[in-house]
Design a protein that fits this description.
The chain is α/β, with parallel strands linked by helices. It has one domain: Rossmann fold, CATH 3.40.50.2300. It has five helices and five strands; from the N terminus they run E-H-E-H-E-H-E-H-E-H. The protein has helices at residues 21-32, 44-49, 70-78, 94-106, 121-128, and strands spanning 13-17, 37-41, 58-62, 85-90, 110-116. The longest helix has 13 residues, at 94-106. It is globular, with a radius of gyration of 15 Å.
Length: 132
């Protein structure tokens, strides 16, 4: 007999990669209210070394980090991205954000959205496919 509790779906695991602690906390707080499990990384290399990397359903990735650029991180993620989606975020010009989204698709990633900073909770939830 199957235990009914074991059939309950695990909450989505989401990684936030942003070197701005204030923004990372703001995004994390928005998402915690949506019932997801969050892990925050200030550096791209820490995300890529994380033992939890295979378990993230979505990675919210800032394009400008002090150690690696978002394009390099997308390259590293492309080989193991099956079932994982990416939401890009940046304070750069919208043309740069659009180019990053196009690049992500080009390397085979499922880029759900590319958000310009600042963005609203509703925009973030829509990008992630969560109920607003």
């Amino acid at each position: 007999m199957t235990d009914a509790l074991s059939l309950k779906a695990e909450p989505a695991r989401i990684a936030i990669v942003d070197d701005d602690p204030w923004l990372a906390k703001l995004v994390s707080d928005m998402l915690i209210s949506g019932g997801v499990v969050i892990e925050v990384f200030a550096l791209g290399k820490d995300l890529l070394k994380s033992v939890n990397l295979p378990h993230f359903k979505t990675i919210i990735l800032d394009l400008s980090l002090p150690d690696l650029c978002g394009f390099d991180i997308m390259d590293s993620l492309a080989s193991g991205s099956i079932g994982r989606s990416i939401v890009l975020m940046s304070g750069h010009d919208p043309a740069v954000i659009h180019a990053a989204k196009t690049y992500g698709h080009g390397v085979g990633l499922q880029v759900r959205a590319a958000l310009g900073k600042p963005f609203s909770r509703d925009e973030l939830f829509t990008a992630l496919g969560l109920s607003v």
